[in-house]
Amino acid sequence: MRAASRVLDAYSLIAYLEGENGAEKMIEVIRTARDSGRDLMLSVVNWGEVFYITLREMGAKHAEEVAHIISTLPIRLIDADMELIRQAAVYKAAKKMSYADCIAAALAKLRKAELVTGDRDFKQLENEIKIMWID
C-alpha cells in the first residue's frame, strides 16, 4: 500500500478499535502510515465522536483506554478552523450526512487526501473526494 495523505472518520477508527468489519484493512493503513512516517489525519470533531460513542456504549474506563490507544497511533489531530467548518457546512446543507461525517469529508477535500471509511453515507461524495473503502 502506498503512503498517501489519508483522513480517518469515526467509522474507520471504531472498526479498528473494536475489531469490526474493515479492521484488517485499518491495520494495513496504520502500518503504512507508521512505516512511511506520514501520519493519518483525524479531525478533533471525529475524535470526539469516537470518544462519545465509546463512552455511551462501553463506559468511561473503556473510553479513556480508547483515547490512550488513539494517542499511540500515527494520527495527527486536526483542529476545526473556519475553512474546515465552512466546507463541512456546505456539505451538510446539500447532503444527507451527519455533521461529523461532513467534517471528515471536508478535511479530506481541503487537504486533498483520501478518506478512509466504510460508511456508505460517503458514497454521495465519491465524485468530490477520493475514498478508500475498508469493507
Q: What does this molecule look like?
A:
With 135 residues, the protein is of the alpha/beta class. The protein has a single domain (6-133), classed as 5'-nuclease (Rossmann fold, 3-Layer(aba) Sandwich). The chain has helices at residues 10-18, 23-36, 44-58, 60-72, 82-94, 99-110, and strands at residues 6-8, 40-43, 75-78, 114-117, 130-133. The protein has a three-stranded parallel β-sheet. A two-stranded parallel ribbon has the order 2-3. α1 crosses α2, α3 packs antiparallel against α4 and α5 (82-94) packs across α6 (99-110). The longest helix has 15 residues, at 44-58. The radius of gyration is 14 Å and the shape is globular. The model has no long low-confidence stretch (mean pLDDT 96).
Could you write a compact summary of the structure shown?
This protein is of the alpha/beta class and 135 residues long. The protein has six helices and five strands, in the order βααβααβααββ. It has helices spanning 10-18, 23-36, 44-58, 60-72, 82-94, 99-110; strands at 6-8, 40-43, 75-78, 114-117, 130-133.
